[in-house]
């Protein structure tokens, strides 16, 4: 299990969506509450619910047999790759390629509501490839197009949730101002007032 994060959210409600990037939210599917590890993917249904929150779904009602272990392996790999990327270390990207290769897509031309032509990609893969491919692609896109300086972890000492800092000044410090930012402010106030 990788490092954990602090959140007040319970596993049943789903992992926090605070990362501002699918790859960051993938890392945030493991957490820590009251010093204890929290696994947001306890079963296939938890994972399918998390994927559905990002518009990734399948037509079958039963998850592929290897979906949960493959998803956890992808998360561990993403944690390793993103940590190396952030630290400016060499990255062995090759283990990510099987996830990407299992995600087959084709171009699709259509009109939007205003009549403008749009080009999108439609998935032709099935099973695990269709479900984990978009997540693997988000990790790959972060490594290719992302700015390592904007890949951050919450600065609260009890939290390690990840996020991609898209703020204008790139000075975001907290996973969420409502969670950790306010906790930090309250702790600083208590320290100053002697209580």
Descriptive notes:
With 195 residues, the chain is an alpha+beta fold. It has one domain (11-99, 131-193): Jann2411-like domain (Jann2411-like fold), CATH 1.10.3300. The chain is 40% helix and 14% strand. It has a two-stranded antiparallel ribbon with strand order 1-2. It has a two-stranded antiparallel ribbon with strand order 3-4. A two-stranded antiparallel ribbon has the order 5-6. A hairpin with a 5-residue loop joins strand 3 (105-111) and strand 4. Helix 3 (67-87) runs parallel beside helix 5 (127-145). It is globular. The chain starts with 21 loop residues before the first helix and ends with a helix.
């Amino acid at each position: 299990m990788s490092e954990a994060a602090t959140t007040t959210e319970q596993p049943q409600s789903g992992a926090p969506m605070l990362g501002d990037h699918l790859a960051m939210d993938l890392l945030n599917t493991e957490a820590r509450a009251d010093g204890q590890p929290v696994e947001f993917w306890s079963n296939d249904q938890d994972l399918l619910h998390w994927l559905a929150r990002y518009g990734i779904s399948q037509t079958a009602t039963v998850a592929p047999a290897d979906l949960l272990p493959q998803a956890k392996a992808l998360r561990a790999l993403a944690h390793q790759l993103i940590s190396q990327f952030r630290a400016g270390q060499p990255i062995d990207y090759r283990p990510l390629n099987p996830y990407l290769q299992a995600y087959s897509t084709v171009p699709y031309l259509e009109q939007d509501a205003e009549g403008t032509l749009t080009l999108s990609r439609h998935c032709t893969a099935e099973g695990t490839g269709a479900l984990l491919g978009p997540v693997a692609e988000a990790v790959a896109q972060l490594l290719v197009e992302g700015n390592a300086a904007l890949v951050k972890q919450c600065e609260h000492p009890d939290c390690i949730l990840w996020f991609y800092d898209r703020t204008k000044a790139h000075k975001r410090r907290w996973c969420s101002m409502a969670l950790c930012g306010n906790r930090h402010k309250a702790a600083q106030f208590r320290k100053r007032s002697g209580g």
